[in-house]
Amino acid sequence: MASVRSLGILTAAIAAAGWGGDLCAQVRADPTRPPAAQIAWGMARIRNLDFVDLRDVAEKFGAQATWDAPKQKLILSTGENQQIVFEADGRDCFLNGVRIFLSERVTAHRGSLWVSRLDLIKTIAPLLRPAEQALQLPMPPRLIVLDAGHGGTDPGKSNAKHQLAEKDMTLDVALRLQKLLEARGYRVLLTRKDDTRFANNPLIDLQRRADFSNQAVADLFLSIHFNAVDPKDAARVMGSETYVLTPQSMLSTSDDKKDAMTDVTFPGNRNDLANVILGYHLHRQIVTGLKTSDRGYKRARFAVLRFLDCPAALIEAAYLSNDAEAARVATPEFRQRIAEAIARGVDSYTAAVAAMRPVVAN
Ligand SMILES: [Zn+2]
User: Fold this and answer.
1) How far is the CA of 160 from the centre of ligand 1 (A)?
2) Ligand 1 centre distance from Cα of residue 118 (Å)
3) Are residue 292 and residue 336 in the same domain, yes or no?
4) Number of domains in the chain
5) Does residue 193 sit in the same domain as residue 272?
6) C-alpha pair distances (Å), 327 with each of 229, 238, 296, 324, 357
7) Could you say which of 117, 134, 151 is where a domain stops?
8) What is the pLDDT of residues 270-327, one digit of tens each?
9) Cα-based angle 285, 223, 211 (whole degrees, multiple of 5)
10) If you measure from the C-alpha of residue 315 to the centroid of ligand 1, how many angstroms do you get, rounded to a whole number?
11) Which of 102, 134, 166 is the last residue of a domain?
12) Smallest Cα–Cα separation from 290: which of 328, 321, 327, 324?
């Protein structure tokens, strides 16, 4: 296991890199760097990427690492009652029961489980140790832009049996959520208040929604959607997903290889840290509040998220392609529950940020 000294050096390097920087570059630039053999988090090159031993992650975070199934399933438990579960070959992990997708598969190697360095820096560390990067977080949100997905000539997904159009359901939830958030003291603006869209070209429409938020100088942007799959999978697939923008150089959840956008830094990537925290708080409240199937907290480079100046998430609240789930969405009670779960997620995110970035009176 690692020596305390080498752990300390790597910890300092990580702090200097702010998790989001180039960790290897920081280590290389450190003149006090010990010989490679003494570096605590022995990084392994797996599938041509840097991977980190989860037992070293546990040691760094003061967490207990326990095998649930030897060399297959590892549980990290922290002193703050957080538990995160990793399984060999899983593309996901479970933090306090919430399913979180990683960019790379967890990999069995040298008798342990390893995660990619970027998954550690961009997902695991910010969720387990957010306070260590508190100065990179924006202040708690006050102005929130709600974006009811689709509208006008773009109906989005639909359900024929219950005669539902996604554009109507998203607007209904946004209006309900607006009331709930205003009652909590937030200022709220909607990208649309009726059955319209900004432009018939989908990319221009999505860009205008981001422009609207940026021009309003919003502190938070939430896009509300409902999902659908091919008819052959419709009976099987149901539940909720929460998305935030994929950080630079990481794979989006639906991808298994790099594409033209993978290495691009978008304006929205300035908020990677706040996004990962926001997405977790939202998704946790949505899956517990709706008692729905946890389809996972995911990442995508959705056009509406790429150019936003503030932390943002896109919520796929339920599957309209599933008749049983569509029947729930058809009721005002369930749409109110969706709005309430999202509002609790916003509150939970705000409380987390406020605890790390307390506002000091002048
Ligand atoms: Zn949609």
Assistant:
1) 16
2) 29
3) yes
4) 2
5) yes
6) 16, 12, 22, 5, 42
7) 134
8) 999 999 999 999 999 999 999 999 999 999 999 999 999 999 999 999 999 999 999 9
9) 145
10) 9
11) 134
12) 328
Whether 152 maps to a domain, the answer reads yes
CA pair distance 16, 22, nearest whole angstrom: 10
Residue 144 contacts residue 183 (beta carbons within 8 Å): no
Averaged over successive runs of 10 residues, the pLDDT of the chain (362 residues) comes to: 36 40 36 44 89 94 94 93 96 97 97 96 93 90 98 97 98 98 98 97 97 98 98 97 98 96 97 97 98 97 98 98 98 98 98 85 68
How remote is the CA of residue 261 from the centroid of ligand 1, in Å?
A: 21
The C-alpha angle 188, 226, 300, rounded to 5 degrees, equals 85
How high is the pLDDT of residue 40? 60
Report pLDDT for 272: 97
Q: What span, in angstroms and rounded, lies between the C-alpha atoms of 45 and 10?
A: 18
Judge if 193 and 96 occupy the same domain.
Answer: no
Neighbours of 153 (CB within 10 A): 12
Which pLDDT belongs to residue 133?
86
Question: Ligand 1 centre and the CA of 157: distance in Å?
Answer: 6
- The CATH number given to whatever domain includes residue 292 is 3.40.630.40
70 Cα–ligand 1 center, Å: 42
Same domain membership, residue 350 and residue 303: yes
Q: Which structure tokens are listed for 360? A: 């000091």
* Cα 135 off chain centre by: 19
What does 95-143 look like in DSSP terms, one character per residue?
Answer: ETTEEEE-SS--EEETTEEEEEHHHIIIIIHHHH-GGGGGGGSPPPP-E
Q: Is 187 helix (H, G, I), strand (E, B) or coil?
A: strand
User: How far, in Å, from the CA of 108 to the mean position of ligand 1?
Assistant: 37
CA of 230 to the centre of ligand 1 (A): 15
- The predicted structure's pLDDT at residue 362: 67
pLDDT at 118: 96
> What is the reported pLDDT for 81?
87
Domain extent, residue 64, equals 4-134
CA distance 273 to 275: 5
Whole-number Å distance, alpha carbon 209 to ligand 1 midpoint, is 14
